Amino acid sequence: MTSATVYRASTTAPVNIAVVKYWGKRDAKLNLPTNSSLSVTLSQADLRTLTTASCSDSFRDGDSLTLNGEPADVSGARTQACFRELRARRAELEAADPSLPRLSTMALRIVSENNFPTAAGLASSAAGFAALVRAVADLYRLPDSPERLSVVARQGSGSACRSLMGGYVAWRAGERDDGLDSVAEVVAPASHWPEMRALILVVSAAKKGVSSTSGMQQTVESSGLFPQRVSTVVPANMMAMERAVKARDFAAFAKVTMAESNSFHACCLDTYPPIFYLNDVSRAAIRAVEAINAAAETTVAAYTFDAGPNCVVYYLDKDAPTVLGAFSPILDGVAGWKKDYQGAASSAKLDEGIAQALRAGVSRVIMTAVGEGPVPSEEHLFRRIDKNTMSRRFESPEVIGDGFAHLINSDKDITILELSKSGHDPKLWWRCAARRGVSFSNISPSSIILFATLPLISYRAREQVTKTEQVRLRPQHGMRMRSLRKAIFAAFLPVDFPNSVSSDYLAYQTYDSLQAFFSTITSLLANRALLQGLGVGDGDSSATCAMLLTISRDAVSNMVTIGFAHRFGLSIEPEAKKYRFLADLFNDSAFFLELYSPYLGPWAKALALCSAEGLRAVCGVAAGASKAALSLHFAQNDNLSELSAKEASQETAVSLIGLFVGSLVVRSVQDHNLVVCLVVVLSLAHLWTNYRGVRSVCMTSINKQRATILYNAYGMFSEVLSPEQVAESESIVFWDDVIRNTDREPAMRIEFAKNFGHAMRWGVSDVFVVDGPMHTRFIRPYAPGRPGNIKIMLWDGARPEHAILAWFMAMDTARATGAANPYGDAKETIDVKWRPRARDDSLWDGLVAQGWDLNTGAMETGPGVRLGVQVSESKDE
Question: What's the whole-model pTM score?
Answer without folding.
Answer: 0.49
